[in-house]
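Final report, Chapter 2: Outcomes

The project's central promise was a pipeline that accepts a single protein chain and returns its three-dimensional structure in a standardized token representation, suitable for archiving and comparison. That pipeline is now operational. To close this chapter, we reproduce one record exactly as it appears in the project archive, with the input sequence first and the structure output second.
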Amino acid sequence: MIRPLVVAHRGSSARHADNSWPAFEAAASEGADAIECDVQATRDRVIVVRHDLTIDDRLVADLCFAEIEARAPGTVVLADLLAFAESTPIDLLVEIKDPGAAEAVAQMIAASARRDRIVVGSFHGPALAAVKATAAGLRTSFMIGSVAGPEELVRLAAAFRADGVHLCWETRAARPHRLLDLTIIDRLRRAGLAITLWHEEREDELRAMVALEPDAICTNTPAILRRIVDAHCASSAAGVERDVAARDDPPEQLVTAMQSTREENR
């Protein structure tokens, strides 16, 4: 059984301004396993946590950090978020919005004591390749908005040396979980890829996504997804125990599965 990680999309962003300290702190208190954030570089090469590439009709890349702070007080910088993740502790999924910042972001994360608990994502494949060239040990995830088959996903990940795929299909269907099935998940996993799914807030859709057992799911409502993941795991554990109890001499692999499930639910 795979317990999907609860990834707070830009923090607990349904209740707080996205990519803000209140959103990040709430994500941790609501049981998120990881925080997803967006990063880009200012003109003076400060790595800021911000989704939009512009502010007041000016490119973030054309403004120095002091100008950013004047226009958006309280803007989080990646260095501080890395320190927060280490002290909390909580994992990070860092999306590179500005490909030109890839090398600087990789250097900063590689220097973090929590680098093994951080994934770098991007829709820009060459940015991920630049991350690997800078710090080969960092984990990366190729983000893709277009619906593609498993073989194409495996090919794209290999092309950019990505360790995983992040499927951003939330707008591709009314019920986007139907774009996937367990066969596709299995094919990606056999290729050695970690599987992260798009952000979703509808509870019925979240339950369907959890049942697919990807490695991680993004959401603006981490407390809700935490409850759903925990309930799914508890139900799965109970099912395994019922199977064992129904047999006089249960197979060794079934006992092992039950013990593993208990460990995951601790």
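Archive annotation: The first strand starts at residue 5 and ends at 9.
This record, like all others produced under the grant, will remain available to the consortium after the project formally closes.
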